[in-house]
Each structure stands twice: as C-alpha cells, then as structure tokens.
Design brief:
about 300 residues; alpha/beta; 7-stranded mixed β-sheet; about 35% helix
Length: about 300
C-alpha cells in the first residue's frame, strides 16, 4: 500500500498501527532466514514529530543500549532492530501552517532509515553504523502517549514475530517453539522525558504513577528510556544537570530498577532541533543544511518546505 493509503487507514480508525517501510521483509527479525534463538528481541523506538528529521535524530537513532546494572544478564551490545515512529495524534503537537504534512514527514523518515545504514551521513560526525543498522523500519500509530504506544507496539510486534516464524496459528504451533519477546527502549530528548513524567498528561498523579509503573516494570511492559542530553538556548548546563538528576530520582521512585538513562549524542548534534531548521529555512539562512542529512536537505528543497516563498 502507498504511504497515503496507510495514513488514511490510521486516520479513519481502520488500523491503530501500520508498518510503512522495512529494510527487509523479516523485520524485526534478522534478514537471514536462520533461526532466531534468543528469548528476547531488543528494539529501539525513536518516536518524534520528524518535522523535519535532523542529525540529532540520526545520532539518537544510532544509540547503543545502556548497561543493565539491575539485570542478571548483561545488556545486548546493540539493539536487534530499530523503529522510527510517527504518531498522527500527538498529545502536544498539531499541524500548523507551514509544517510538513504527515505524508511528507513519513517520506523523510524513510530517507532517515536509509541514512541509518550508511557509514557516514553528510555533515555528521557519528560512529560507523552498527551491524543491525540496516534492520530498521518506519511505522505510524494512532496513540498520543508513550505508555499507550508501548502496549500497542508490544502487541503488534508479538503478532508480527509469530507470523514471521510461522507460529500465528497457536493450535498448530509446536509447544517447543517460543517466539522471542519484544523489549522496547524508547529514545527521546529531555523535553519529552519531562512531559512523560508530568501529571497534566494523565487523569491525575495517581493515574500517572500507575501507568508509568506498568510501562517500566518487569511485571508490565518492561520498557526502557534513553534520553539524549540536549543543549537548549537560554538554559544553563547547571539547570540541565538538575533536571537530569530529578528525572532519574523520580523514575527510581516509580520502579526500583534502572529504566531511565541519559546519553551524549555529540557536541554539535545535541544543539540541533527541528524548530531551528524550520526557523533558519524561513529566514533563507543556509546554515540549516548543516543540521540534516544530504538526502533530507534535498527533499526539503525539492518540496520547498518551511520556506516563506
């Protein structure tokens, strides 16, 4: 199906999540057909508005899993698969005049997925791609909250994995064959983490704690969060560090496990933002090209996005 058709399915309530692009038909399993024997499939989820995708998105998408100090086994060296996700019903952000349409954002996300598999993106000072860099997909979802997305994605991925392994028919499936369980790690910026832990996005504070406990607890979704440290205009380093400490302490109060970690994504990348790209583009300041990959810069120019002309 075309991107527009899949988008209409979501918007008309015919589906709640749709896979728009995958680097190969077996995603999120490895592309080769050999049996996947690990009990867990570790998948990173970069959920953003992608308006447009920047080198900060690319750097965060290439993040490795943090050490699991509270787990009996060591953390995987890398994620088994990666997912770029766009919510078409964001709790905070509605389309504004001059914004890229959802279809255009999805097309740029697919370009970003291809960039993930390349050794070096133009203008980016990033490490070489990991072995699983090409095991990436793009999806859209009709759910504004991370807690809701986690539950929906786990169900969607569990069914997809079973189908790929030929285990969709539970009655005929061999009891000795158990599909790997998807474990999700959500990648986000500091501003998003602050919203995740803000009571105003829930019915009340008690509801927030209950939802987050299920989201993060091993007895629930067992999801994790990796937060990129960002350099924000007008915000001091001391203030950023204070917010980081407060978020870590709050997360530990929710569940006594290491479920939230902060990472550096690069001295330049941490300063880039989609809003700054749009602002510079509107001013006809060519510096915005340094904040995106060459493929996305070409797309923005060809579609005349974020331009006042």
């Amino acid at each position: 199906m075309s991107i527009l058709t899949l988008l209409h399915r979501i918007q008309r309530g015919l589906s709640i999540v749709e896979l728009v692009h995958a680097s190969h038909p077996r995603w999120p399993l490895p592309s080769h057909p050999s049996p996947f024997t690990a009990p867990t499939l570790h998948i990173s989820v970069l959920d953003s508005s992608f308006n447009p995708p920047t080198l900060a998105h690319l750097a965060l998408a290439r993040t490795f899993p943090p050490p699991l100090t509270d787990a009996p086994t060591s953390a995987p060296r890398d994620f088994d698969a990666r997912l770029l996700l766009l919510s078409v019903r964001n709790a905070d952000k509605q389309l504004k005049p001059g914004d890229a349409t959802y279809e255009q954002r999805i097309e740029m996300m697919v370009l970003l997925a291809h960039d993930l598999a390349r050794p070096h993106a133009a203008g980016a000072h990033l490490p070489d791609p990991d072995p699983h860099g090409s095991n990436v997909a793009v999806a859209i979802i009709d759910e504004p909250t991370f807690v809701g997305k986690s539950a929906i994605l786990r169900d969607f991925l569990s069914r997809r994995i079973s189908e790929l392994l030929g285990l969709a028919d539970v009655a005929s499936a061999s009891p000795s064959v158990v599909p790997p369980e998807p474990k999700l790690t959500f990648l986000m910026g500091t501003d998003t983490v602050v919203r995740l832990f803000a009571p105003r996005y829930y019915a009340d504070e008690e509801a927030m704690v209950a939802a987050l406990r299920h989201f993060l607890s091993p007895d629930g979704d067992d999801s994790r969060i990796i937060c990129a440290r960002r350099t924000s205009h007008g915000v001091s380093k001391v203030e950023d560090e204070r917010v980081e400490v407060e978020m870590l302490e709050f997360a530990r109060k929710i569940v006594p496990f290491e479920r939230l970690s902060f990472v550096d994504i690069g001295k330049q990348e941490c300063t880039y933002s989609s809003s700054e790209v749009r602002k510079l583009r509107t001013k006809a300041d060519g510096a915005w090209r340094n904040m995106v990959t060459a493929s996305i810069a070409g797309y923005i120019i060809s579609r005349n996005l974020y331009s006042i002309s």
